[in-house]
Amino acid sequence: MITRLKPGDTAWDAKAYQQFSNLRQRPVNELLDRIELKRPKRIYDLGCGTGIATQLLAKRWPRARLMGVDSSEQMLAEARALPIKALWKHCNLLDWQPEQPADLLFAAAVLHFIDDHERLLPSLLNHLNPGGCLAVHMPDWRDALWYQLMLDTLDDAGLDGTPLGTPALRRSMAARPLLSLESYYRLLAPITRTLDIWETEQLQVVDGQSPIYDWVKVSALRPVMMGLKAEEQARFIYHYLMRVHQHYPPERDGRTLFPFKRIFIVATV
C-alpha cells in the first residue's frame, strides 16, 4: 500500500473539517444502515478524524470495545474530547495492525487516500473475525468538475501559464486510486460471504463565501498544498478560487450547489 499522506506532513485542520460536520455525517449514517451486525464486540474506526463516525458507532453499539485510529494528532485531540467510551490510537493506516481481530472495521472517507486497493481491501478483511464486517465509504471525486479545475490550475497557474509543482505531483493528483464498482465486486466477492456495493451522488447545498474551497482544502487539496512551495501555494489558491467561483456561482438564496459522489462497500467474511 502506498499513501500520498505521511505522518509529519502538513497538519490536518480539525476545526475547519468540522465546518460541514452534518453533511459529512450523512454518508456515515447511510453506511451504518446497511450493516447487519447485532452485537460486535470489537470495533475499529479507521481514519476516525474528529470522531464524527465514532460517536455514531458508540451510540449504536455501546457495549462494544471501540477504538479510533488516525494519523493526525490534531484530529484526535478533538475526538478525545467527545463524551463517549472509546480508545484512541495515533497511527498511520499503513503501519496499523489491530491488537486483536475485529468484528467491524469501519472506514469513513479515508481509504481513497491510499493506493493499491487490490491489496488494501483484502488485507483489511484478514483482520476480521469470522462473520466480521468491513464497512467503507469513499468520496469518488476524480471525475468531479471541482477536481478537474484543480488539475487545470496545477497545469497553467504558474508564471506565464506554466505548470505549478513537480511533474510527479501533477501525475499523482491525476491518478485514480479508486476502482470501478464492478472491479470491487470481482476483487471481493471470492473472499467474502456477503457483499454490498453501491454509489450515490448527493446534491450538497453549502453555505459560505467559498464553501467548495472550504470543503476541499481540508481533504482533497492537502496533497497539493504539501507539494507546492509557499509562492506556488498563493498562486494556486488565487487561480483555483477564480475558477471555482466561476463554475459554482451561488444560487439566488446565496447558497452553493455542490454535487458529490461516494462509493460504499459492506463486506462480510
Blueprint of the fold:
Layout: H1 14-17, H2 21-33, E1 42-46, H3 52-60, E2 65-70, H4 73-80, E3 87-90, E4 102-108, H5 117-125, E5 128-139, H6 145-156, H7 167-174, H8 181-188, E6 194-206, H9 211-216, H10 222-227, H11 230-247, E7 256-268
Helix pairs in contact: 2-3, 6-11
GO molecular function: trans-aconitate 2-methyltransferase activity
Keywords: Methyltransferase, Transferase
Protein name: Trans-aconitate methyltransferase
What does this structure look like?
By secondary structure, the protein is of the alpha/beta class. It folds into 2 domains: 1-140 and 178-207 and 261-269, Rossmann fold; 143-176 and 212-253. Helices cover 38% and strands 22% of the residues. The protein contains 11 helices and 7 strands. The protein has helices spanning 14-17, 21-33, 52-60, 73-80, 117-125, 145-156, 167-174, 181-188, 211-216, 222-227, 230-247, and strands spanning 42-46, 65-70, 87-90, 102-108, 128-139, 194-206, 256-268. Strands 3-2-1-4-5-7-6 form a 7-stranded mixed beta sheet. Helix 2 packs parallel to helix 3 and helix 6 (145-156) crosses helix 11 (230-247). The longest helix has 18 residues, at 230-247. It starts with 13 loop residues before the first helix and ends with a strand. The model is unreliable at 1-10 (pLDDT under 50).
